[in-house]
Design goal:
alpha+beta, Beta-lactamase, five-stranded antiparallel sheet, three-stranded antiparallel sheet, 30% helix, 22% strand
Length: 328
């Protein structure tokens, strides 16, 4: 059964998806009843970078001018008007690590319903672990998604990808047999126009000491996250929670998931987020959050350190709020 949290989230997000201006025109999402704020999406579904049609002359210093990040790349986009608030090497192609799981979940959730049942084929972690889906237990798809995203479970991503294999093959006969979910993840990237993004596996783990499991740019990741938050808000709503206790509605199995985003408490109005960390990727973090009523911003940091990504994001969130408040 859908949680109260998700029902409230869908009420909040419903207005974001109601207006469409046709397949060729821009889609206007994130409509704010009081301000008329919109985020621009192209006909492919990808958000479009744009400056506001009416330029506001800022009298205050740019809050981002003093921001110094440990990350190699960053990108901050105001989704209400397409204004780029900040960018640092936004098109540099870097390893994505577990940010990959956002694409995995998108591919899976587009062909399976949240109440679809998945029997876990293998233990996701050793017996006794607090974060564990045990072999033979049966869970709703949404439960497995929540577990996978919140705990950043690589095994969970593998299980989701396998569960959607046949459904994706039926919907997309051209999908690669045996790796249909991976094929669809790359297809989504292509449809969104993510020119610097491709996936080699479904979980983002490094394949070797020299080969990452996925690549993308900060700008591309921002577009992917904006699309996820817009097209499937309830699917990703669990990522806003510090932790989640899960109980299978089928067999009563229980587990927990603890959020890997240590900056969560410093992010007001969080809509969704995802961490990523591997040896090759370093520390990654992407979020979508509201800086005010119906005023969403997407922010991405790539190739920081394991702890530095959280410090980087705290700085970005504070600067974003200040910039929007100053009318920049």
């Amino acid at each position: 059964m859908e949680t109260q949290h998700n029902r409230q989230y869908e009420i909040r997000a419903r207005s974001l998806l109601e207006r469409s201006m046709g397949p060729v025109a821009l889609v206007l999402v994130f409509c704010a009843s009081a301000t008329g704020a919109i985020v621009y999406f192209s006909s492919s579904g990808a958000p479009v970078d744009a400056q506001t049609s009416s330029t506001v002359i800022a009298t205050e210093p740019d809050p981002f001018a003093a921001v110094s990040l440990q990350g190699e790349s960053a990108y901050v986009l105001d989704l209400s008007d397409g204004h780029v608030l900040y960018s640092l090497n936004p098109d540099t192609q870097l390893p994505l690590a577990s940010m990959t799981k956002v694409a995995t979940v998108l591919a899976v959730s587009q062909v399976l319903t949240p109440d679809s049942l998945i029997t876990i084929p293998f233990d996701t972690s050793p017996p006794g672990s607090a974060e564990r889906l045990a072999a033979g237990t049966t869970w709703r798809l949404q439960d497995v998604i929540n577990f996978t995203l919140i705990a950043s479970s690589n095994a969970g991503a593998d299980i989701l990808a396998a569960a959607a294999e046949d459904a994706i093959r039926r919907k997309y006969p051209q999908a690669t047999p045996g790796s249909a979910t991976l094929w669809r993840m790359n297809d989504i990237a292509r449809q969104l126009g993510l020119a610097n993004t491709y996936f080699l596996n479904d979980n983002g783990l490094d394949i070797s000491t020299t080969q990452a499991g996925a690549f993308g740019s900060a700008r591309d990741v921002a577009k992917l996250f904006a699309y996820a938050a817009t097209s499937a808000p309830a699917i990703f709503a669990g990522t806003t929670q510090n932790n989640m206790a899960l109980t299978s509605s089928v067999d009563g199995s229980k587990t927990s998931a603890f959020n890997t985003d240590l900056a969560l408490s410093a992010i007001p109005g969080i809509i969704m987020g995802k961490t990523g960390y591997t040896d090759l990727a370093g520390g990654n973090l992407g979020i979508v959050f509201d800086v005010g009523p119906a005023h969403p911003v997407v922010a991405v940091v790539l190739h920081s350190t394991e702890d530095g990504r959280f410090d980087d994001m705290r700085k970005i969130v504070a600067a974003s709020i200040a910039a929007v408040s100053a009318g920049r």
